[in-house]
Structures are given as structure tokens and as C-alpha cells.
TrEMBL record, chain A:
InterPro entries: Divergent_4Fe-4S_mono-cluster, Fe-S_cluster_ET. It comes from Microtetraspora fusca. Keywords: 3Fe-4S, Electron transport, Iron, Iron-sulfur, Metal-binding, Transport. Pfam families: Fer4_19. Its cofactor is [3Fe-4S] cluster. Coiled coil: none annotated. This is Ferredoxin.
Length: 75, 399
């Protein structure tokens, strides 16, 4: 699972940090998303998806969802 | 695509029960989550009551929040703000790229981490107000003793607005939020508040302090007018919203003793409880409203360029397709994803502050006064159906 963050779209609402502070943080300057772990372990997949879904601005997305699901199943 | 054949309705504001949105909204949502709405100025636009459609529109850049493009579903509200909401710094009523610039300058001030840093001070402020309630003794009006002063003091300290002047800005802000205020009253209150904060901004520029307004005055290229507009927005938004959640939320918990006990006795449910109270009570009484910038088709409905769309987030937050048993208050359910703070680029700037305040204040109140109860029959609690932000005008309690 690879998270893609578009800081140009991000409005700094902080929903991702609230949902999963181990993976997401915010810039002190403009509040935009900072990825602490752009490729979190499969064990976090559900929490990561929830955080991505909560994002109000559509700044977060996941790469290779199918490959990722396969990998998660193998793990 | 189906053409709009449903008869246009008008937006109901009266509530049959204190904690539920008007019944009509729920009926309409189940039958037609996007339906024609007659606006009092003669415009025919839309009312959205379904969760999925409301969320999609809030996130859609083809819908604008510019005040000059919007029709308002409440006649008096439209008149009140025709001239008052178009000014520098009122980024809530701007589209990108204007909005983006302001949001960027402010978002860093309201991050999850910064709000966490405020926790010790918010706990102290909460304790002080509980001490004062204990000293004065029962009964008390929870709104004046607790729900309003805590967020009001917090936002004052954060912005650098002297709390000693609260009588003035609390009065102005309640005029601005009342659906019954005349156009003259609204304009006078807005001018009074702008004058007051304009002075403050100039003082902060001359002698900066360690607060948000000083920081913006010295570290950004915002003009005095822009900074005054921003401060006005943040001051109003910062105390009225959380204040009403604290008042109405406590009322709802008092009417649901098992839920109250869970919040009081189980610290691990508090985060969920705050989200659930936000969802269940949805203090946003009217909108938000958007205007289509181009023709947009949503769920087989064609919303034409220029048409206004009122998004009833209160009804959307009770959509059974998104929240099972939506009319039950269940503080243990995961209610995040509710639309009370909005969605899309205008989602509430201060939401992490509001959450921090509520997570501290509800359990602190319930633990300090385990015997907390209403001092009047529930039906005598005056509800804010006449205000843009719903809640209780007063909440007489004893303990």
C-alpha cells in the first residue's frame, strides 16, 4: 500500500492525523499533510483507507489498490 | 435523466422534538434526497437531504460558496446578509484561488498538534468554571455558567481578543446569528464588531503579542481589512458553535441517562461520543448553501448553472444508508464521517479546536456533578429554532 498526498489540494483540516496519527502529520507552517510513513504495513490497511476516505479535499489517494489487496492477502 | 416533477417545497425550521431535525426533512430524504426547493425570492433551486449527495456536492468544485451567487432559503436571512458578508477576509464565502490563500495562512494555526498543545489550558479554564458553579451553587443556567464562557475564553486567548470585552462581541454575535434580527440590526452589529476588531488589529500590528492575530499581522501580507474580516469570522465561529454543542449536548445526555453514564464513566468512549453528538445534534440549523457554476447532474437530477442548492446536513447526518439506526443517540458508535463540520475545501477550520474543547468539557462537567439534572421540565427548555446555529437559549440545571 502506497499513499499519495497532493499537498496542493490539501486544506489542512487534519482529519487524516485525527484518524491515523502514526502515518499522517501536518506541516507546522500551513497545516498541509506530511506523510510520516508513505508505505504503511498491511496491518494498517483498513485504518489508512478510513483516513483517506475522511479527507475533505480529496488530497489523499492510494496507489495500486488491487496489487495492494493481493499483497495484503499474501501477508 | 428524470426532470424535476416533484412539487417545490419550502425549508422547514420548526422542530417537532428538540434533538431531531424537522420531520419533513426525513420524509423527503427517504423519498427524494434531491428535490426542488422554492426560495423566498422566487428562485427555484434544490434541497439535498441525502448523505451521499450532500457529501458529493460539498466536495465538488463546480459548486460555489460566493455570497453574490447564492439564494437563501430563509427570507430574513437573505436580506440580513445581502450587504454584510462581502468583504475582505470573509474566506468562508470565497472560492479558490481567493479562499486558498486565506486557508493556507490559517490552517497551520489549527492543526491537530497545536490544538493538543492547548489541552492543559482548556482543562484549567473548564476547572475554573466548574469551581465557580460549585461556589455559586445550584441551580444554574448551564449556557451562561459553562457552555458559552469556556469556548468564548478559549477563542479569545487564541486570537488575542480581550475577554473583558465579551459582553460586546457576544451581543453582536447573537444578533448576527438570530433569524429575527432586522437588516438594520444586523448591519449595526456587524459594523460594531468590525470597528472593534479593526482597532484591535491596528493595536496588534503596532504592538504584537503572542497570539494568532499578532502572528498574522506581523508574518503575512494580509491587509488590515483582511485581518479584521478574518478575526471577525473566527471570533463568531469560535464561540457560538462549540457553545451550542456543549449546551445542547448536555441536554441530550441528560435525556439519555445511559449514554450520559457512558461518557462520564468510560474515558475511552469520549472520542466516539463527541463525534456522535456532533452527528446526532447537527447544530447547523439551515445550510450550508452552494450555487452551481455549471450544469451538473447528480443522481439523475440536473442542477443547472446558477441554481442554489441547500444542503441539509442535519438530515444527511440521519441518513439510514450511512448511519444505521440514525435516530438513536449511541455514543459508542463510530460516527466520524458526519457532515456537521462540512466537507470539501470549506470544512470547518476550527474543528480540531472544537473537538478538543468538547472532549474535555463534557466528561469534566459530568464527573464534577454526578447528580446533574434539569431544573425545569424538559419541554420548558427554550430551543434555538430562531438562530442560525441550533441549541438551547438556556439550560437550567441543578445537582
Amino acid at each position: 500500500m502506497k499513499i499519495i498526498a497532493n499537498t496542493g489540494r490539501c486544506i489542512g483540516a487534519g482529519m487524516c492525523v485525527l484518524a491515523l496519527g502514526e502515518v499522517f502529520d501536518q506541516s507546522e507552517e500551513d497545516g498541509t499533510v506530511v506523510l510520516l510513513d508513505p508505505e504503511p504495513p498491511a496491518s494498517m490497511a483498513d485504518a489508512v483507507r478510513r483516513a483517506v476516505q475522511l479527507c475533505p479535499s480529496g488530497a489523499l489517494s492510494l496507489a495500486e489498490p488491487y496489487a495492494d489487496r493481493d499483497r495484503a492477502e499474501r501477508d | 435523466m428524470t426532470e424535476a416533477t416533484t412539487r417545490p417545497v419550502t425549508l422547514p425550521l420548526t422542530r417537532e422534538r428538540p434533538f431531531d431535525p424537522p420531520d419533513a426533512l426525513g420524509l423527503w430524504r427517504d423519498e427524494d434526497p434531491i428535490r426542488p426547493l422554492a426560495y423566498p425570492d422566487g428562485h427555484q433551486g434544490w434541497l439535498v437531504t441525502g448523505y451521499a449527495a450532500a457529501r458529493a456536492i460539498l466536495a465538488d468544485a463546480r459548486f460555489s460558496t460566493r455570497i453574490d451567487l447564492l439564494h437563501t432559503p430563509v427570507a430574513q436571512r437573505a436580506a440580513q446578509f445581502r450587504n454584510t458578508l462581502r468583504r475582505p477576509g470573509f474566506f468562508l464565502r470565497m472560492d479558490p484561488p481567493d479562499h486558498t490563500r486565506y486557508r493556507r495562512l490559517l490552517a497551520g494555526q489549527f492543526t491537530v498538534r497545536r490544538m493538543k498543545g492547548l489541552e492543559p489550558r482548556i482543562e484549567e479554564i473548564t476547572r475554573d468554571h466548574l469551581d465557580a458553579m460549585e461556589r455559586v451553587g445550584a441551580p444554574a443556567d448551564l449556557v451562561q455558567a459553562f457552555a458559552l464562557p469556556i469556548p468564548s475564553l478559549v477563542i479569545c486567548e487564541l486570537l488575542g481578543v480581550p475577554y473583558a470585552d465579551r459582553e460586546k462581541f457576544q451581543r453582536d454575535s447573537s444578533v448576527l446569528l438570530s433569524l429575527n434580527s432586522s437588516v438594520e440590526q444586523v448591519e449595526a452589529a456587524m459594523n460594531d464588531l468590525l470597528d472593534y476588531l479593526d482597532d484591535l488589529v491596528r493595536r496588534k500590528r503596532a504592538e504584537p503579542d503572542d497570539d494568532l492575530v499578532s502572528g498574522l499581522a506581523t508574518e503575512t501580507d494580509l491587509t488590515d481589512d483582511e485581518l479584521t474580516g478574518i478575526t471577525t469570522l473566527l471570533l463568531i465561529a469560535g464561540h457560538e458553535t462549540t457553545a451550542n454543542m456543549l449546551g445542547l449536548g448536555t441536554f441530550a445526555l441528560l435525556r439519555n441517562p445511559e449514554q450520559l453514564a457512558a461518557v462520564r464513566d468510560h474515558p475511552e468512549v469520549v472520542d466516539h461520543a463527541v463525534e456522535e453528538l456532533l452527528r446526532y445534534l447537527t447544530v447547523i440549523h439551515i445550510g450550508p448553501i452552494r450555487a452551481a457554476l455549471e450544469d451538473v447532474e447528480i443522481d439523475g437530477r440536473l442542477i443547472r448553472a446558477g441554481e442554489s442548492v441547500t444542503l441539509s446536513v442535519a438530515a444527511a447526518n440521519r441518513d439510514p444508508e450511512r448511519f444505521p439506526e440514525p435516530d438513536q443517540l449511541d455514543v459508542t458508535r463510530p460516527a466520524s464521517g458526519h457532515l456537521t463540520f462540512g466537507h470539501g475545501i470549506h470544512q470547518c477550520l476550527g474543528q480540531q479546536l472544537a473537538r478538543t474543547e468538547m472532549r474535555i468539557a463534557y466528561p469534566a462537567l459530568l464527573r464534577r456533578f454526578p447528580g446533574l439534572r434539569l431544573a425545569v421540565p424538559a419541554e420548558e427548555v427554550p430551543m434555538r429554532t430562531d438562530m442560525a446555529i441550533y441549541g438551547v437559549h438556556r439550560l437550567p440545571v441543578t445537582w
